[in-house]
Structures are given as C-alpha cells and as structure tokens.
Write a structure and sequence with these properties.
CATH superfamily: Nucleic acid-binding proteins
CATH architecture: Beta Barrel
Oligomer: single chain
CATH topology: OB fold (Dihydrolipoamide Acetyltransferase, E2P)
Structural class: mainly beta
Strand order of the largest sheet: 3-2-1-4-10
Shape: globular
Helix content: under 10%
Strand content: over 45%
Number of domains: 1
Length: 120
C-alpha cells in the first residue's frame, strides 16, 4: 500500500481551503475538515481516501503516471508542485497528462504540525 499523501501548506484564514506551499494549488476543504488557524500545516490523506470525480472536485491534479496492479490502479499525480497518489479500481479510465478532479471526506484528513511532525 502506498504511503499517506503529505501536502505542505497553509490553511486559509476562513478554514475553507488549503493552499499548498508556494501558493501553486488550492484544495477546497470539506465542511468540518479545516482548522480555524491560518498557520502552516501538513495535510495528510491516504491514497485510498481520494475519490476520482468527473468534473471539478476539491482539488485538480495532473496525472504523471498510471500503474496497473491487477484489480486496482495507482495514479501518480501532481497537486501544484507536490506529488500525490490515488488508489482506485482498475476500471477507471485515466491517462498520463490528464487533469483530474478528486474529492475526500473531512474525517479522512490528518493534520500535522510542520515543526514537530506530530499529529494535531
């Protein structure tokens, strides 16, 4: 199983979004998924908790590589400059160079302190 996706960035002041380091990508956070603070954070989401959506989504990623592993695919993509991996069924049609939308639930977000690396 691939490791958790760890994105470095900052929670938006209103808690509704997460801006990746460098300000190159914005992820819309699900209701109850954010934190009130605009402090720097590491946002973790497991590959199996990211859902591919037809249009839009909470984040837009660019696919770099698709690994076929029998009954599932590992989709390696970029969220701005940061790498992410999605785990999905082998029946999903996705190709390198494609832009895809992903969604995730608030309960599946793990927040970490940038300095200590500890879960918040």
């Amino acid at each position: 199983s691939p490791p958790m996706n760890l994105l470095h960035g900052r929670v938006a002041a209103d808690g509704a979004g997460f801006v990746t380091e460098g300000g190159d990508a914005l992820l819309r956070l699900p209701q109850g998924g954010g934190q009130a603070s605009a402090a720097r954070r590491i946002m973790g989401v497991r590959p199996e908790h990211l859902r591919l959506v037809a249009e839009g989504g909470q984040a837009t990623l660019e696919v770099e590589l698709v690994e076929a592993l029998g009954a599932e695919l590992l989709v390696h993509a970029r969220c701005g400059t940061q790498a992410m991996v999605l785990r999905c069924g082998a029946n999903v049609a996705v190709a390198s160079g494609q832009r895809i939308g992903v969604d995730f639930d608030a309960a599946d977000i793990h927040w970490f302190d940038v300095e200590s690396g500890r879960r918040i």
